[in-house]
Specification:
The chain is of the alpha/beta class. Helices cover 34% and strands 26% of the residues. The strands form 2 sheets. The chain has a 6-stranded mixed β-sheet, sandwiched between helices. The chain has a 4-stranded antiparallel β-sheet with strand order 2-3-1-4.
């Protein structure tokens, strides 16, 4: 199975369809509910709903998903055709395309089974996903030109060369998946004035779009990043820090001890992330790509 533990839950939706071709006489008996085996529409609908909920039992690499809604329609689409449509919705980490396709396939198999005594030449086909929504692909942003970013690592020991930077490299690596160019990468000591001064320069004269710092956000004796950055923010972004702690707390109770801050200075987004590589990685996974929607808002484009 694919590891989806890093993904965040979003509203997921999929619609699939498929067709069964039969003689006009057989299709007419479906419409009039005179098939000897019983009500074709009701049976196929029930089977489709059941199979959608059991998809992970029969599709090897599908994760079990708590489905919030499944609907199946079985309708006569012409004199010799029956269409089955499945709609599936959930708030979860992975899409529900396979659940929709499995529901259609199973419903069609039940129609086939019930009609085969009436028509030995039944055919099934045209099974496909018609529509899907949700996940990261729905929340991507295109800015024409890539955003300009600065990554700052706040650590005395890294600044002095006693420890290799890992969190800053994690941040840079994850940013390659998005329309963002890291133009500044620096290591700073745990010095409140130096941190504040560099943030001012980057958001001011250097006019970068995004500043992401890593380190100095805990309760250590030299953790002053929130104190350095907080007074500079013109608009705080509590939703971002709430998301960081919520996402992190689902993975470790220590996340509640992090003092991340986030907000904007003019049109520059500032994110202060934890100093550990795992904390930085999880924070990036929690925020991206959704956080990038802040830029159209900053530029006057609204939601």
């Amino acid at each position: 199975m694919i590891n989806v533990s890093a993904k965040t839950k979003t509203l997921r939706y999929a619609r699939a369809e498929g067709f069964l071709t039969a003689t006009p006489e057989a299709v007419d008996r479906v419409a009039n509910r005179t098939v000897p085996k019983g009500d074709v529409q009701a049976t196929a609908r029930a089977a489709g709903i059941l199979s959608a909920k059991r998809t992970s039992d029969i599709i090897t690499f599908c994760q079990p998903i708590p489905l919030d809604w499944v609907d199946i329609s079985v309708e006569v689409a012409g004199s010799s055709e029956i269409r089955v449509t499945a709609e599936v919705e959930t708030v979860w980490k992975t899409g529900v395309e396979m659940e929709a396709v499995t529901a259609v396939s199973t419903a069609l198999l039940n129609v086939y089974d019930m009609l085969k005594p009436l028509d030995p030449d039944l055919e099934m086909g045209g099974i496909r996903v018609v529509e899907k929504r949700g996940g990261k692909s729905q929340f991507q942003e295109d800015f024409g030109e890539n955003l300009r970013a600065a990554v700052l690592v706040i650590s005395d020991s890294t600044y002095e060369g006693a420890r290799e930077d890992r969190s800053g490299k994690v941040i840079q690596d994850l940013l390659t998946d998005y329309p963002v160019d890291v133009e500044v990468y620096e290591i700073l000591p745990d010095d409140e004035e130096r941190i504040r001064g560099r943030i001012r320069e980057l958001a001011g004269d250097e006019n970068v779009d995004m500043i992401i710092s890593s380190g100095g956000s805990g309760f250590g004796p030299k953790d002053f990043t929130p104190e350095a950055v907080g007074p500079l923010l013109e608009k705080e972004a509590p939703g971002l820090t709430e998301q960081l702690r919520r996402y992190g707390s689902n993975r470790t109770p220590y996340a509640m001890l992090s003092r991340e801050v986030a907000g904007t200075i003019g049109e520059t987004l500032v994110l202060c992330l934890p100093g550990s590589s795992n904390g930085a990685r999880e924070s990036m996974q929690a925020l991206f790509p959704g956080v990038l929607h802040i830029f159209p808002m900053l530029w006057g484009g609204g939601h």
